[in-house]
Amino acid sequence: MKRFFMRRSTLVVAATLFILGLAILLFEVGQYQVISMLMVIVACIPIYYRYERKKLNIKELVLIAILTTTAVLGRFLFYMIPAITPMTAIIIISGICMGAEIGFLVGSLSAVTSNMLFGQGPWTPFQMFSWGLIGLIAGLPWIRRVLSKNYWFLVLYGILAGIFFSFFMDVWTVLSIDRYFSWTRYVALLVTALPYTISYCFANAFFSCLLLRAIQTRLQRILIKYDIK
């Protein structure tokens, strides 16, 4: 078993180096859109590999699937209202209740799963990374303690998460136009999207405060009942 993990870790390192090498070659020919997508994929590899190495618990996997489904359902139910969705709030709460790794997994899996309904594309890895990072940071030990006890900090984190997601995804939008990054175009996009960014930040803060206790209570009961650690 130890040899198996060593062999698999070697393959992960080799794949990562290959992708980075490919990104360097593409940089010389100006393929910045492809480069950015490859870099985002590389950033997602360590957390998935670390979680994969752990002893798998079927109960925990089912719980992750339920949280991911809940987040996707939240995005689907509010898709008619621009920039208003409880999906990010559910990802944040998943990190607070279950920790950084599960927060990242719920965030990234929610992105790729919900895009089966809303459309997959080169933007999917960007969404996976940004939503995953939002869940991961919310699940860091000292941050999750603060967020679970203080609604003001939870509101602040929801706002910051909305700003981060919008700013990060606008990088993809700029690159998707002609594969080159332009600061002028980027700032113009930020200004144009400001009403949506404000709505998104408000939705994150509102739904995080509204759903935290309800989801937290139910998760605690499930964790105790089924002895999930």
TrEMBL record:
It comes from the Bacteria. The chain crosses the membrane at residues 33-49, 61-81, 87-112, 124-143, 155-175, 187-215. GO terms for molecular function: transmembrane transporter activity. InterPro entries: ECF_trnsprt_substrate-spec. Keywords: Membrane, Transmembrane, Transmembrane helix. Signal peptide: none annotated. This is ECF transporter S component.
